[in-house]
DNA polymerase III subunit gamma/tau
Amino acid sequence: MSYQVLARKWRPRTFHELVGQDHVRRALVNALDQGRLHHAYLFTGTRGVGKTTLARILAKCLNCTANGRGDDGVTSTPCGQCDSCRSIDEGRFVDLIEVDAASRTKVEDTRELLDNVQYAPTQGRYKVYLIDEVHMLSTHSFNALLKTLEEPPPHVKFLLATTDPQKLPPTVLSRCLQFTLKHMPPERIVGHLTAVLGSEGVDFDESALWLLGKAAEGSMRDAMSLTDQAIAFGQGEVRHADVAAMLGTLDHRHVLALMEAMAEVNAARVLAEVGQLAEQGPDFAAVLDDVTGMLHRLAVAQMVPDALDNAHGDRETLLSLASRFTAEDVQLYYQIGIQGRGDMEHAPDLRAALEMTLLRMLAFRPQGVPQPPKTPLPLSGAPERDGVESHNPSMTQAPEPAGSAMPSSIEPAPAQPPPPAEAPPPWLDSEPTGAPMTNATAGRDASMAEQVMKEERIAEEPPEEAAASPEPVEPETVAAQPMACEPTPSPQPEPAPPTAAPVAEAAGRITHKDWLARFDSLGLGGLTRNLAANCVVEQDDGERLWLRLDPSLAAMQADVHLQRMEQALSSLGFERRLVVEVGPLPESVETPKQQADRLAAQRLAEAVEALTCDPHIQELQKTFGARLIQSTVKPVDAQA
């Protein structure tokens, strides 16, 4: 017996053997069981989704001659054993007239076909006309068919199939019961191929089936044909390497490795992965297409995880990889990839174009490419760490005066006077709540730092007098000198005792009041700022800072946001490890976002009131009937 290809051998012969298209199967089965039969059915969809197969199954249901099928014999479960069923399966049923409209487009062919419509069926119960690719008929052919479609004889059924229903005249569409067949998802194709190859006794790699399911592009018939080809290519087996070589497609694992390098922001590894791809001689434009396609899937995984497809059998891998990217990075990478794909036409070398596009993604990301680590220079007034004094970044650019240089090595116990116990945290200073740091503030910080340095030098200059006297009498001597001309002495700061270190550390703890006061000084932006603005401070033990996040923003959590917030706090002199817990926020506590919204609403209300009370505005309203459009009012910043 000659070999029969898989697409024909495994072609469904009943509705219950049909893979997919459940919406069409359900409608047809119910119509057949209830006897609600239409005279014309139109099946639409792309190639290989089952249009002709459905039509032949429906023809068997209409003409099955098995006993016990009701009054008219029509059934939704044809027996497959009677003469009519076997004749239809073998393509020799007299009353099933199959017409290829692509080869019979002339009106003469259509009229010849319709001349026999009036005659009763010869073998079966109904005379069935199956017209494939019906959209290829000419306008005159449609006109000839239209009258018969409108009033057909009771023993005639029309089954039309097309891949382009838009080309059918509306008059024909309105006289047919239309069913649109869907693309087969890769998961459905892989599942069916697994069952087929298992029954055929063919060894296979599951990853190879995913390649076939992707290459089929929603067509089950194409998938079966490609499987036949893969079996022949692999000498009776279906292996991943063989299928990839047969299809000439890029190994999906290389694209995953490339995206891993992008997640690490590792430009060297990105170029190394491209170099490995170049050894296989791929189409670099197709590589970029695969990268942008994966970026789209990563965006879906971030926003709607349940909607992520499993096109390559890598759903869990992509869900894990999506957590390593920020949403803005994925959107930016996708946009750069789309633009880079268009620029490839003008690039002198496709590999260089791919590399430049990938490097551009890293270069233009909001955080940039990580640079070599540098010595941190935190702001003035921040708590000391490891005995090194903190300086204002605004002061680090200008050279220090000759006499103000600090010693290169400083003892762990500093000799400078401690701040008073009742002093506020370093980042509060004396600025009002929510005020950003200005040039005046930076100048005041510089002056304070210079004053502290002078006091330290004064405290270190007279070590001989301090050593000669067992009592610390120097402060009394310094205070007694101005008593000859001033009634009240000016107190001087005392040297810091060793027991004052815990007091200074306690003063550097972060409270929620501090969080609100200097939130803008953190310099955060994008999604990171939005995340931090919806947090409240719960606790600070000096090493870890606990934040509570609004549950509505729980999906925005990512390690990269926490790292940015920790870096921002470190730039203000607070080395903390952040711990973010999701939960309802206390009603009595205001988040930075709520505070900003409230202040903005207050400024807007004040601006509207100022305009309403302005005599010039009132005169315009009185004279010309003008009215104030409050939605256009924008308060001016007090510092502008």
Remarks:
- The CA atoms of residues 210 and 313 lie 7 Å apart.
- The chain has five domains: 6-180, 186-247, 252-363, 375-396+423-459+503-590, 595-632.
- The radius of gyration is 40 Å.
- The chain has a mean pLDDT of 77.
